[in-house]
Amino acid sequence: MLRAGGPDFDTDAYLADSPFEHVTRYRRGEPRWPGLAGASRTSGFDVTVSEADMGDLATQIDEAIEFLDKHEDELRRLGRFEGVEEMEIDFAVERRDVAVQAEWFPPELLWRAGALDIALRITHYLALQRES
Q1: Distance between CA 2 and CA 7 in Å, rounded?
Q2: What is the 8-class DSSP label of residue 71?
Q3: Which residues on adjacent β-strands are paired with residue 122?
Q4: Which helix (H) or strand (E) holds 68?
Q5: What's the pLDDT at 67?
Q6: Which of 81, 85, 86, 123 is 20 to 30 A off residue 15, Cα-Cα?
Q7: d(CA 83, CA 60)
Q8: In a domain, 76, yes or no
Q9: What does pTM read for this prediction?
């Protein structure tokens, strides 16, 4: 997931002429997620970068590199857009029942994201039992 935002980011103005189709849009002062208490301190949006399952980090990484290549010019425009203070790609990863869990990003992804001032995040989710 690509996330972009900032306290003074006008998401409506940016998305009006952006090719990105947001999955989520949030505004400062409004609840970030429906049904949860608390107002968002920033305005921003989320865009799907990869359709890969959270158990397939390798495919998420490959698709993120493709996304960065395909949208490089638009990501540069987004990074310069008034009010944008942070951009990140969040990788959803299943938390395994192990003592230590390590994830790895290849230099190509780090280089491409860094060149666009995009941070990388890994969010671990509890693995749910799958039916056989």
Answers
A1: 17
A2: T
A3: 91
A4: helix 57-70
A5: 98
A6: 123
A7: 28
A8: yes
A9: 0.88
CB 76 within 8 A of CB 53: no
- Write down the residue that tokens 């990140």 correspond to: 88
β-pairing, 86-95 vs 119-126, is parallel
Identify the domain containing residue 7 by its residue range: 2-126
Q: Please tell me the distance from the alpha carbon of residue 87 to that of residue 67, in angstroms, as a whole number.
A: 14
CA distance 47 to 118: 14
Instruction: Identify the three-state secondary structure at position 47.
Output: strand
Determine, yes or no, domain membership for 132: no
Q: What is residue 122's three-state secondary structure?
A: strand
What mean pLDDT do residues 102-128 have? Answer: 93
Residue 4: beta bridge partners? 45, 87
Structural domain total, the chain: 1
CB 78 within 8 A of CB 4: yes
Q: How far is CA 86 from the centre of its chain?
A: 11
